[in-house]
Design brief:
The chain has 251 residues and is an alpha/beta fold. It contains nine helices and ten strands. Strands 3, 4, 5, 6, 7, 9 and 10 form a seven-stranded mixed β-sheet that branches. Strands 2-1-8 form a three-stranded antiparallel β-sheet, with no helix packed on it.
Length: 251
Amino acid sequence: MRGWLRWRPTPIGVFRQGEHWGIVFATPMTEEDFLNPKNKEPFLRLLDRLENINSLMGVRLTSYAGVIPSYLHANGYKNDVSHHFSKPLPVINKSIEIVISIEFAEYPDKDIPIILLGGNGKIGTPLKYHWRDSRTDIYVVDPQGGNVSLPNEIYGKPAILVDVSRRGAIRIYIDEMWDGLVILNETFPEPSKSTISLLDSKGVKIYHLSGVKGVVIPSLPHGYIDSVPCCAIHDSNEDTLPVLKLLGSQG
């Protein structure tokens, strides 16, 4: 049964974000399934089935979760998925403002360095260029290439690390972190309990950006109660409210 369902989008819920309603589709497919070159054709057929459903229902916008947008972009899929890479930007900006107001109230906004983990990826790239137009204290770190280590020049200083990298990337850098560093995690899912425990032991606070204010029925697991994940944002503006969760012993 799983093999048959894996390539067929199945409705599992509905959601509302802003003034828009949507339907949540899912399959028991794993990331390893669709990244396997042998499964490229059935995966593209799955997307075609979803687009046929959308056409019948008059759906205005289709959003994909996880690394699917990056995969489609890299493989030249016929439908434009570029909107996935910029729509979280206002929400992440507002989340940073909130974290700074909580954790660094005594510092002016411009004095808090930002480390962008995954800054060379599809989500990180528009963030990187946007921030470089308005800030001079941006440090891009990416485990896939470029600068792969946290910047030594700000070690021990107040700073925010924004994680838009792959799942589990934070854990790679724990030994390089310091007391006073604050993490804003946008990556799904929220870090594991063991990772959070290690961060606690280093004196590193971590906020998880669950998404934006909205409702999913039934609620999504892994830290997404009372929120719609950023990948499903339809309305993204200054009034869009991020949902932040402080993890660890202080959460």
